[in-house]
């Protein structure tokens, strides 16, 4: 009788999962959900109607392969030691390779997201998995790419993989790997492994794409191009290994948010495997406990004393706090010198849909600073009896050419927003203001529009025409005197969790782009770090709030015969 096969590495991985669920290993909500999901689905897979099954031999094979590779840096490399995967690495990286589709026995998970703070052994994961997919996956003519936006970043994964092959002659000889200066190839079937900056070349058909530090990508162009090129492969893998970053409106944050919703069961993403190492809301970021929770390799590849020193620095310096919490606790903090607390932004109350706001008092802010780029039309509904929240809705306008043509670095982002139905595209090269006027007429018919705030730049004629149709148009020049107090008030509403913005991807992106310019009198003004970091929607919201504040403060003289030039009183 044949001996029953055992899978010690899979057993260790699942033991890790059980210890996480039991609380023996500190972990955040998302890691607990991921561990529970796997263990639950192993049981579900026995049912005939469950479309997937777990083959421990497949996962064990990947784990064994990775542990035959050498370390490439640090004390273990100096001793020429082989990699020994920790329980979290076995679970995070190897278990997804064991999940297959019942209908054709191909891999279930096509995207593997490892979201983990710096210095937690990402190069082992990226380089090792890349080598497995290049040599041992059984894919004829495999194409493995280490993709990034810069040459330096692309080599962060490729260099360790290349060193692993250089230091493992048995692997090189067994698989016939030829190591070149900037790529590796297998002449027997044409397989190759190479770094790629930007899009892969025409005709590329990735069987595996490794995207390192996805948070540094301004848009999803590289990710989308890799994913599209995988169409001809039976079971490709997109491996994303990243920390958090400062662009809360970028493609990386969106992928992480999708993973969170998937783990919560809100959306279906059966092909996405996600391990999100961070801390939980309400955790004390100054405690040692959060360091252990967010950093699974605490005390192994990342020294506890080092992390505690960085934590102390952050506690003593507000400037260092954002960097520490982003890089070592994996929290999304926002722009590098962000104005808004984006952690609080994410905790906003539920927003009422427009259909439930019909007839409510409303203030509108228009930022039409450019006819050739995105413009914002923001509706702000103040609290009423029984509803203590400020509800914020926006419409965003863009010339169609900005989406069709490769005009700037935001084109891919605009295409994503358009696909989500969040943009109103107008014909031609510039925004057609007639479309905005039609929306204003709609709003005037649906809501109790108190005032429409606008900046005279580009908008004077539109304001005159809408004033003639009965809307009270109020000029709010974008000066420090007019903007500072409502900007501070908007920040307060976010911190108090009273601004219901609906987690709109467009407005969230813009909110994360705003930096506060401070003068000697403690006045603030919205600014941006780069021209492509659009903030129009937030500026329009500030303008609308300025009029709501003024509306509370003044009786309101009869302004119906004039376009009013009005500043904002100090609160």
Automatic annotation (TrEMBL):
Domain of life, per UniProt, equals Bacteria
Residue ranges occupied by any Terminase large subunit-like endonuclease domain in the UniProt entry: 272-550
Single GO molecular function: endonuclease activity
Q: Residue limits of the Terminase large subunit-like ATPase domain?
A: 88-260
**Gene3D superfamilies, alphabetized:** P-loop containing nucleotide triphosphate hydrolases
- Pfam families reported for this sequence: TerL_ATPase, TerL_nuclease
- Please report the name of this protein according to its UniProt entry: Terminase
The organism of origin for this protein = Pseudomonas fluvialis
């Amino acid at each position: 009788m044949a001996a029953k096969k055992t899978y010690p590495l899979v057993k260790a991985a699942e033991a890790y999962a059980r210890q996480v669920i039991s609380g023996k290993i500190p972990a955040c909500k998302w890691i607990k959900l991921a561990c529970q999901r796997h263990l639950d689905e192993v049981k579900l897979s026995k049912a005939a109607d469950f479309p997937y099954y777990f083959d421990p031999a497949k996962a064990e094979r990947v784990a064994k392969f990775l542990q035959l590779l050498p370390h490439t840096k640090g004390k273990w490399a100096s001793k020429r030691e082989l990699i020994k995967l920790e329980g979290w690495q076995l679970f995070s990286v190897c278990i997804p390779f064991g999940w297959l589709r019942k209908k054709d026995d191909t891999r279930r998970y096509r995207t593997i997201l490892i979201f983990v703070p710096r210095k937690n052994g990402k190069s082992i994961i990226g380089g090792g998995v890349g080598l497995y997919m290049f040599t041992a996956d059984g894919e004829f003519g495999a194409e493995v790419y280490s993709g990034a936006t810069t040459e330096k970043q692309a080599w962060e994964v490729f260099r360790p993989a290349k060193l692993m092959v250089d230091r493992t002659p048995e692997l090189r000889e067994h698989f016939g790997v030829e190591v070149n200066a900037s790529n590796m190839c297998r002449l027997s079937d044409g397989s190759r492994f190479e770094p790629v900056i930007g899009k892969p070349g025409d005709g590329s058909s990735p069987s595996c794409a490794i995207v390192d530090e996805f948070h540094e990508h301004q848009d999803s162009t590289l990710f989308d191009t890799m994913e599209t090129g995988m169409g001809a492969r039976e079971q490709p893998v997109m491996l994303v290994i990243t920390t958090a970053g400062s662009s809360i409106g970028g493609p990386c944050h969106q992928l992480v948010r999708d993973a969170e919703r998937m783990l919560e069961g809100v959306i279906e993403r059966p092909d996405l495997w996600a391990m999100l190492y961070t801390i939980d809301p309400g955790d004390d970021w100054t405690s040692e406990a959060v360091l252990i929770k967010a950093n699974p390799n605490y005390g192994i590849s990342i020294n506890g004393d080092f992390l505690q020193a960085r934590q102390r620095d952050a506690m003593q310096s507000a400037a260092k706090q954002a960097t520490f919490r982003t890089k070592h606790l994996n929290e999304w903090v926002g722009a590098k010198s962000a104005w808004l607390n984006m952690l609080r932004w994410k905790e906003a109350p539920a927003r009422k849909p427009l259909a439930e706001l019909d007839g409510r008092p409303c203030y509108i802010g228009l930022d039409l600073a450019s006819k050739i780029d995105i413009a914002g039309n923001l509706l702000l509904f103040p609290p009423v009896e029984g509803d203590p929240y400020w509800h914020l809705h926006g419409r965003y306008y863009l010339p169609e050419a900005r989406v069709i043509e490769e005009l700037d670095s935001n084109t891919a982002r605009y295409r994503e927003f358009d696909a989500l139905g969040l943009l109103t595209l107008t014909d031609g090269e510039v925004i057609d203001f007639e479309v905005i006027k039609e929306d204003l007429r709609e709003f005037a018919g649906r809501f109790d529009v108190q005032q429409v705030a606008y900046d005279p730049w580009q908008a004077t004629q539109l304001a005159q025409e809408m004033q003639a149709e009965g809307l009270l148009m109020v000029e709010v020049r974008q000066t420090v005197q007019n903007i500072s107090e409502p900007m501070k008030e908007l920040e307060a509403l976010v911190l108090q969790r009273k601004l219901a913005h609906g987690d709109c991807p467009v407005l969230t992106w813009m909110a994360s782009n705003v930096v506060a310019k401070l003068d000697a009198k403690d006045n603030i003004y919205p600014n941006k770090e780069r021209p492509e970091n659009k903030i129009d929607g937030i500026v329009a919201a500030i303008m609308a709030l300025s009029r709501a504040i003024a509306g509370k403060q003044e009786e309101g003289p009869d302004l119906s015969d004039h376009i009013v030039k009005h500043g904002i009183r100090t609160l």
